[in-house]
Amino acid sequence: MTDGDAAAFTHLGSTVRSALSERGFSTPTAPQRLAIPPLAADRDTLVIAPTGSGKTETAMLPVFDDLVEDPPEGFGALYVTPLRALNRDMRDRLEWWGETLDLTVDVRHGDTTQYQRGKQAEDPPDVLITTPETIQAMLTGERLREGLEDVSHVVVDEVHELAASKRGAQLSIGLERLRELAGNFQRIGLSATVGDPEDVGQFLTGGRPCEIREIDVGSNVSVTVREPEITEADERLAGKLMTQADTASHVRLIRDIVDERESTLIFVNTRQTAEALGSRFNELDLPIGVHHGSLSKEARIEVEDAFKAGELDALLCTSSMELGIDVGRIDHVVQYQSPRQVARLLQRIGRAGHRTDEVSEGTIVTTRPDDTFEALAIARRARAGEVEPAAIHEGSLDVVANQIPGLVQSQGAIFLETAYEIVTRAYPFRDISEEQFRDVCSELHRNRIIWFDEGEDRLESSGGTWQYVYANLSMIPDEETYEVHDIASSRQIGTLDERFVVNFASPGEVFIQRGEMWRIAEVDDDEGTVKVSPIEDPAGEVPSWIGQEIPVPCPVAQEVGEIRAAAEPQFETGADAAAVARDFTHRYPGDEHTLEEALGQLERHVETGTPVPTADRILIEREGRSVVVNACFGHTANETLGRVLSALLGQQTGSSVGLETDPYRIELEVPSSVATSDVLAVLEETDPAHVETIVELGLKRSDALAFRLAQVSAKFGALKRWQGSGRMSNERLLKALEDTPMYAEAIREVFHEDLDTKRASAVLERIQSDDLEVVTTRGRTPVGSGGRSAGTELLAPENADASVIKTVRERLQDDRVVLLCTHCTEWLSKTKVKRVPDQPECPECGSTRIAALSPWAEDVVQAVRAEEKDEEQVELTQRAYRGANLVQSHGKQAVIAMSARGVGPHNAARIISKLRENEADFYRDILEQERQYARTKSFWD
Description:
Blueprint: H1 3-6, H2 14-23, H3 30-40, E1 45-48, H4 55-69, E2 77-80, H5 84-101, E3 105-108, H6 114-122, E4 127-130, H7 132-138, H8 142-148, E5 153-156, H9 159-163, H10 166-182, E6 186-191, H11 197-205, E7 211-214, E8 221-226, H12 232-241, H13 245-260, E9 264-267, H14 271-283, E10 288-291, H15 297-308, E11 314-317, E12 332-336, H16 342-349, E13 360-365, H17 369-384, H18 397-411, E14 414-415, H19 416-425, H20 434-446, E15 450-453, E16 458-461, H21 465-471, E17 481-486, E18 492-497, H22 498-503, E19 510-513, E20 516-524, E21 529-535, H23 554-572, H24 577-584, H25 592-607, E22 617-623, E23 626-630, H26 634-653, E24 658-662, E25 665-669, H27 676-685, H28 691-699, H29 703-715, H30 727-736, H31 741-754, H32 757-768, E26 773-778, H33 802-814, E27 816-821, E28 828-832, E29 850-853, H34 858-865, H35 871-890, H36 892-899, H37 905-913, H38 919-936
Parallel strand pairs: 1-6, 1-7, 2-4, 2-5, 3-4, 5-6, 8-13, 9-11, 9-12, 10-11, 12-13, 17-21, 22-26
Antiparallel strand pairs: 14-16, 15-16, 17-18, 19-20, 20-21, 22-23, 23-25, 24-25, 27-28, 27-29
Helix pairs in contact: 3-4, 7-10, 10-18, 10-19, 12-13, 16-17, 17-23, 17-25, 18-20, 18-21, 23-25, 23-26, 24-25, 26-27, 26-28, 26-32, 29-30, 29-31, 33-38, 34-35, 35-36, 35-37, 36-37, 37-38
């Protein structure tokens, strides 16, 4: 080892250096060489390096050194991780150092026993490994607070993950509360690569000076993008898996990659894909485990241990494996479909290889042109170090509301000015005004969470303070989950979120979990359980898991547009896809076949004579009621533009406008009266300064905002856990809370998480200044047709098989329906769909104009029967009449169609108009409409 290499360790004392030699650490890793000097000098430091590069020891060696030199009486150091599973790993890694250096290391989190907690309060360990939520609890315990007074170091692991969440915002205030007890302490952050290291550093330190020590990860990452060729073997495999040949080729390619290595992580973007792909590997009896957050803790530990022991060749996982859970050495990382973001790719691929002098190797397996171009852009940006910022939550008022009772509980009576000063020292809250802070205190007072003496500006505890603090240690939203139990063995196999259970889970339905197929036998709402039995049927519904699609950032989508722009003139001059592909292999890490497959779409598009949508050109295409605005601006900007379009077009026509977006398209379902020129006019005439206002007005009646508002108001103590059921409940909630800090926070959160009004406004400005070209065409184009629906082959078969159709038919026939005569309005009957006659008629007046309504549609019945109707009742009555006309014309078939989820008179008419001779096709059309409704219902009133 050279003197230069060893120099980092010379900053440590002899005891720690001896331990290093005993442990076999002869040469510092790259992060240790960079970061140990400032850390040993007690400076606040952010260390940015890949997982497995020695970050933990980098942070802890100087901390151990300090604790050996100056043993603490209370807690000497806190090591904060965002996952309990990381706590387990950290204790395993740090215990040896503790034993060797005569320092105590312990873990504390929600599952720690009462006995162990008592021991820690009596005799605090030198190093405590814990979670952000447990720190909140510790700050309120009298004996624990005494132990915390001695803290001299706090290490925050995976700080990039926390910086982008409300959990992190809560922790940032928690660290300022800890500073009130312990005085200044050293803050050390361990992070994956981020685009804004200075901001993350400021988040860590509360705006104080922070040393940044960063390893260039991109130069040590080797990524290949591949879309497999379909072979005869894939055709045979497709028959075995009962899937399409292209899906079979993906399975085969991943299997081949796994066979060539000893240990592989296979990352996917959603739990649906993990389960669907896992079921394919399960069919082939391959030693590949499934790992994601909806599996039980026991199931996750079981596959982690099996993978680490070499019993599994690969682990199929979601973001659950992005963080540093120790599963042993990883040779290679497969990313199935585009990773969507540069930071995510670097973090995932960075898990392969365990020291930074090794190149981390990975393969992105892509499935369609958008996917391929996006993956190529992300891979190039990763090598160039063009990473997204962490997106810190700025000024979340529900976090402020969460922390004020904690301050009062732990410190007793406190002046508002003092509390405000502590909270605004935390970086995400530096811009909160005193007026906003006062409004939050007033709301907490109204809800009897604290006592706010406005005369003396003093905050005190009330009868509800203690209960609130301990019920709200976490900022993770309180959403109910159902445990899934195997009915034969009674073992728990995972969880389903409440929204999936309510919308989809009824006896007989089929879904995938742990890569296996299950049929629902019973749903127990009181116990919160779903009882299931395993089946061999290879087709079924995939659970609609908690969590949203990973948003593709605007710069990535723009680069996809630039790739299209570079290819278009080559096709126009006669080059074919193979020739253009050869040219692109010099710029992007894909083979000729992969590039040729993706470029084939652009070649076909150019052949139509229609301009290609690029970074500097929007293409609007129209077919029937479907309008596609091809726009390369990423998820959140397109979502915002889509909401502006749907709101203004809906306002013009008085009708709902359906909306679905992806990073490259805004798809609208418009009334037939809307012309393409109307869509263009919105883009050309809407004032960019009004975008935020238009979107907010559109949100006011949305379920998405009501759901967020329910979660936010729970943190203010305004509502016990809110359970809305239907539009009226949502409207009442929104109206009741409109002028409160809770409403302001719910709006802020929706804008922060889902929308980008600044970019959307900038797009309108570019259009209106002729900097951005907009062209229109009739009919669908190859690029416009290549959206999300083109990439769902793994989630469900294109044609649901007979067993699924049978399940749908039985479910609809067993559904209850309310029949109401719209002629005399007197006769009303509640029955099951299967008991409805082929042509229902009123026994009172003989009319065949019978409305078929859902059992909970009392408001529609009241509206039809009301002599004087308000505006909403008129709308409900007209809807009932449209349904009655359909029943009069088509009898029981109309009743069946309208019993389906999200199928009203308009969509039922569309289904019936197809005149299906085959009954299975009729139910297949209904199922497709139900799926479409599930995908898009958050955008409809």
